[in-house]
Amino acid sequence: MHIVVCIKQVPDSAQIRVHPVTNTIMRQGVPTIINPYDLFALEEAMRLRDKFGGEVTVLTMGPPSAEDSLRKALTFGANRAVLLTDRFFAGSDTLATSFALATAIKKISDTWGAPDLVFTGKQTIDGDTAQVGPGIAKRLGLMQITYAAKVTEYDAAEGSVTIERRAEGGTQVLKSKLPCLVAMLEGTNEIRRGTMADALRGARAEIIKWNAKEAGVEDLSKCGLKGSPTIVKRVFAPSPRAEKAKFIEIPEGGSLPDALIAEIFTRQPALEADLTELARGF
Amino acid sequence: TKKELPEHFKAYKHVWVFVEQERGQVHPVSWELMGAGRILADKLGVELAAVVVGAEGETVRNAVAESFCYGADLAYVCADPALADYRNEAYTAAMTNLVNTYKPEILLLGATTLGRDLAGAVATTLLTGLTADSTELDVDADGSLAATRPTFGGSLLCTIYTLNYRPQMATVRPRVMPMPDRVEKPLGKVIELPLGLAEADIVTKVLNFIPDRESSKSNLAYADVVVAGGMGLGSPENFQLVRQLAQAIGAEYGCSRPLVQKGWVTSDRQIGQTGKTIRPRLYIAAGISGAIQHRVGVEGADLIVAINTDKNAPIFDFAHVGIVTDAIRFLPALTEAFRKRLSAHSRDKLAS
Ligand SMILES: Cc1cc2nc3c(=O)[nH]c(=O)nc-3n(C[C@H](O)[C@H](O)[C@H](O)COP(=O)(O)OP(=O)(O)OC[C@H]3O[C@@H](n4cnc5c(N)ncnc54)[C@H](O)[C@@H]3O)c2cc1C
Ligand SMILES: Cc1cc2nc3c(=O)[nH]c(=O)nc-3n(C[C@H](O)[C@H](O)[C@H](O)COP(=O)(O)OP(=O)(O)OC[C@H]3O[C@@H](n4cnc5c(N)ncnc54)[C@H](O)[C@@H]3O)c2cc1C
């Protein structure tokens, strides 16, 4: 089987700082990581490959430095890595991103064989839209299963896949046809460490690099800013609350809990009766 | 880069809200969106339409009827047995069909698992822009939709437009918009469009639906009162103090993200940017520092009470009431004091 896993390199957002005066993101020196959600997709893909045989190709669109993430994926055990990089891709929104990735997946398919499955993460930690997975599926005409918790069955002969999907209020068990796009839910597995051999291979392996033309893009107006219907017009800091918290202190002869409760019910008078009702239910 | 809107998009008018319903229930985010959509439609001087997709029957009829009570002027309905369970193929077909036939200028959906799965597919099929997880919706002087959303976990906000494409699409997470009042209204205009797909055409089949166990279902997002704990509690055993207070006052309990990552609390209890957004009347946060990713999930609360040992903790910048003390000692005392006060009331009421 052949599986393509889309991974994105993202800034480690725990370490992002905003410039206090200019309100711009200070990216300098912020380490980048593989989008954590994508590791669940990569691991699930490799487990299927280990079971059924075949190859896992990882694909990312990003600046040349995104090579680091691809190399990391190879050390985990992916078979091949493709970096889609071109200044024409800069400023892509999710529609333009899904166009570029879908085009590259077609080229991957022509070069190394059609994928049976395409995996993505549930969402990224920077853009955080969860829109790229469905976008790729629609552009390639693949079946689409998002919020996948588990691939329970894979039947190459029948060309089908059965997946447990997190839905509102429960778990949906879906059976669909291959090729299928699967957006993997977090916490569903744990990324392996990779073998020593993988580590060596990952460090040395060639990362396949394609610009827009090499990836098969014919219409550059569908890429980058030009191909993006959404436009970010304004970036600004949230307005601070006018007043800070009122601190409650121990009143003379009273207790702190009682003082707090009095404060709460003074500010929310209707709450007292309602809480009494609620509390009686217990 | 505002250009004149291309000629073929000029016919696109009116605001649509996708009414999400499954297994007999409308997701309340639909009515929250209806409230937001009403404001946009009034500003634009256009109509507000509900879009209901599902299997023919009582659920759809009920969703349509309720749409009017929450402010819709009309409803578009695509009802077919093949739409009984949510499946992307069928729902995307229904939605794109409706949009291409009746041409809305704005289309809003809830950022639920269903809504996010659907919105991305619909926007790509229609080749239009989609703003994810908006926290504010407005229209400009020239009538464009301005959708604002947090960037980088909420440290900044950005306003996103879809200027030259239609419809302008946005998703909004549950509880971000206030719930509008429900006003009894008769049924208005209902326009139906057939699905145009047979069950045999739909590749994906639903083999089963396993509902969450009743005990594991939390009503956190919609709770009136929420008590939450953070790393300041120091151990999973101490987190029980949060649950005990919640239980004593009939509240739901929640937590900050590190507690989920440590496995102390299940992920459905996480509050914040990557967890649940809450809008309770009272929120009590114990041992939570108030990082921006936590803040964006709780700012809609009417009253925020923070308990923290550090008087400079960021949470005191947005809490209304603060207590600088050790939560591990304070929580049991607060639970006891609440119990006393509330049971005294019960007795008064019973006596009178
Ligand atoms: C703060 C911020 C807000 C934004 N808001 C919007 C918005 O509202 N609407 C909009 O259209 N665009 C938006 N964008 C642009 C959007 O982030 C980019 O288009 C980005 O390239 C992909 O979207 P995402 O990060 O949201 O990915 P998601 O859709 O969340 O990613 C889902 C999965 O797709 C795969 N994937 C995503 N990007 C890549 C990639 N470059 N290479 C390989 N695989 C990938 C990964 O497997 C990932 O887990 C925003 C960007 C930022 C920084
Ligand atoms: C992409 C991304 C998404 C995120 N999403 C979320 C999210 O959805 N929700 C979320 O909550 N976080 C989220 N985070 C994490 C967030 O940045 C913070 O790390 C987290 O909220 C901190 O949790 P905390 O306040 O419990 O812990 P800490 O920051 O460690 O704070 C502990 C607090 O407890 C106080 N304290 C210590 N001892 C006591 C005591 N005995 N009594 C009272 N107070 C005491 C301390 O003074 C301190 O203020 C996200 C981060 C990233 C990068």
How is this fold's topology laid out?
The complex is a heterodimer of chains A (282) and B (352).
Chain A: E1 2-6, E2 9-11, E3 17-18, E4 25-26, E5 32-34, H1 36-52, E6 55-61, H2 67-76, E7 80-84, H3 94-112, E8 117-121, H4 132-140, E9 143-155, E10 160-167, E11 170-177, E12 180-184, H5 196-204, E13 208-210, H6 212-215, E14 230-236, E15 246-247, H7 256-267, H8 269-280
Parallel strand pairs in A: 1-6, 1-8, 6-7, 7-13, 8-12, 9-12
Antiparallel strand pairs in A: 2-5, 3-4, 9-10, 10-11
Helix pairs in contact in A: 2-5, 3-4, 7-8
Chain B: E1 15-19, E2 21-22, E3 25-26, H1 29-44, E4 48-54, H2 58-69, E5 74-79, H3 88-102, E6 106-110, H4 113-126, E7 130-134, E8 136-139, E9 145-151, E10 156-162, E11 168-172, E12 189-192, E13 205-211, E14 225-229, H5 236-248, E15 252-255, H6 257-261, E16 282-286, H7 292-298, E17 303-308, E18 321-324, H8 327-351
Helix pairs in contact in B: 3-4, 5-8
Bound molecules: flavin-adenine dinucleotide (FAD) (2 copies).
One flavin-adenine dinucleotide sits between chains B (153, 230-232, 256-258, 270-275, 287-289, 291, 293-294, 297, 307-310, 313, 326-328) and A (13-14, 125).
Protein name (chain A): Protein FixA
Family (chain A): Belongs to the ETF beta-subunit/FixA family.
Subunit structure (chain A): FixA and FixB form a heterodimer.
Short description:
Chain A: Belongs to the ETF beta-subunit/FixA family. Chain A: This is Protein FixA. The complex is a heterodimer of chains A (282) and B (352). Chain A contains 8 helices and 15 strands.
Structural commentary:
Chain A: FixA and FixB form a heterodimer. Chain A: InterPro entries: ET-Flavoprotein_bsu_CS, ETF_a/b_N, ETF_b, ETF_beta_N, Rossmann-like_a/b/a_fold. Chain A: It comes from Xanthobacter agilis. Chain A: Keywords: Electron transport, Transport. The complex is a heterodimer of chains A (282) and B (352). Chain A folds into 2 domains: 2-222, 3-Layer(aba) Sandwich (Rossmann fold); 241-282, no CATH class. In chain A, 33% of the residues lie in helices and 28% in strands. Chain A is built from 8 helices and 15 strands. In chain A, strands 11-10-9-12-8-1-6-7-13 form a 9-stranded mixed sheet, sandwiched between helices. In chain A, strands 2-5 form a two-stranded antiparallel sheet. Chain B contains 8 helices and 18 strands. Chain B has a 7-stranded parallel sheet with strand order 7-11-6-1-4-5-12, with helices on both faces. Chain B has a 5-stranded parallel sheet with strand order 15-14-16-17-18. Chain B has a 3-stranded antiparallel sheet with strand order 8-9-10. In chain B, helix 3 (88-102) packs across helix 4. Chain B is globular and about 65 Å long. Chain B has 2 domains: 7-201, Rossmann fold; 214-351, Rossmann fold. At the A-B interface, helix 3, helix 4, strand 9, strand 10 and strand 11 of A face helix 3, helix 4, strand 7, strand 9 and strand 10 of B. Strand 15 of chain A pairs parallel with strand 18 of chain B. Bound molecules: flavin-adenine dinucleotide (2 copies). One flavin-adenine dinucleotide sits between chains A (6-8, 35, 37-38, 59-62, 92-94, 97, 101, 120-121, 123-124, 126-133, 230) and B (130-132, 149, 151-152, 160).
